[in-house]
Amino acid sequence: MGVTVGFHRLLTHRSFTARRWLQITLAIAGSMSFQGNVIEWVAVHRRHHAFTDRPGDPHSPYRYGTGLRGQLRGLAHAHLGWMFRNDPTPAARYAPDLLADPAMVRVARAFPALCVVSLAVPFVAGWAFTGTWTGAFTTFVWAGLIRVALLQHVTWSINSLCHMIGHRHHPTRRHDRSTDLWPLALPSLGESWHNGHHADPTCARHGREPGQIDLSADLIGLFERLGWATDVHWPDSTRRQRLHHRSRHHDQSP
């Protein structure tokens, strides 16, 4: 939830406004996922939206063409390989708002320490509950290493699979090939309704079709009811049509 609600829907797309303590808490929680510091994460994702499936997109699976060999190579690139390329995303260009926020800068600088905490807490909890080193190590493996690995692969699958297979329920920009992939809906907490997200990036709910479970949006709704979140951008057909018209105009511009 720190990644999906905090890094993504709040800090990257501003789909709602959160109380300051909640904003910082979500940024810390997202940092403990090992996906990079909050400022770099936001910058990369905003760049992805600026150049979706075109040159400049840091992790498009269509980087090497649409043939079978090119797509297999592109799938590996989008899933994992892009992180090993020398293709930095300038935070000053894509995340100047976070660079100007002292609290977010401090959270970004604390990223290595937060990763250590993310693994130390399961180890300590395992030892506290079982009183044995075996219990501590077992908890460290399952609630630490395996948790992180699973979270990473689910997120990477949004970058790769959710641009290659699935359904396209919503119109997007001409080059955008984002899809909705239902098998990932629960493990991704609603992020795999990726076509819905790309159709209206600032919307707080990604799953807009009947039966599309979006647990991240449900949590934002809870925050709203508690008074912790305001100005929530819920689905609005008029706004979506306006955004689609603007995206089509952008695609047709020289």
Per-chain topology:
Layout: H1 2-12, E1 17-18, H2 20-31, H3 38-50, H4 68-79, H5 91-94, H6 96-99, H7 102-109, H8 111-130, H9 133-160, H10 194-199, H11 215-226, E2 229-230, H12 237-252
Antiparallel strand pairs: 1-2
Helix pairs in contact: 1-2, 1-3, 2-7, 4-9, 8-9
Structure overview:
Helix 1 (2-12) crosses helix 3. The chain has one domain (2-252). By secondary structure, the protein is mostly helical. It is built from twelve helices and two strands, in the order αβααααααααααβα. A two-stranded antiparallel sheet has the order 1-2. It has helices spanning 2-12, 20-31, 38-50, 68-79, 91-94, 96-99, 102-109, 111-130, 133-160, 194-199, 215-226, 237-252; strands at residues 17-18, 229-230.
The strand line-up of the biggest sheet is 1-2
Measured as a percent range, the helix fraction is 55-70%
The number of helices is 12
Number of strands: 2
Low-confidence stretches: 249-254
What would you report as the Rg, rounded to the nearest angstrom? 19 Å
Percent range for β-strand residues? under 5%
Structural class: mainly alpha
Distance between the termini: 39 Å
Number of structural units classed as domains: 1
Provide mean pLDDT, rounded.
92
The sequence of SSEs as H and E is: HEHHHHHHHHHHEH
The largest β sheet comes out as: 2 strands, antiparallel
Instruction: Give the overall shape, derived from the CA principal axes.
Output: globular
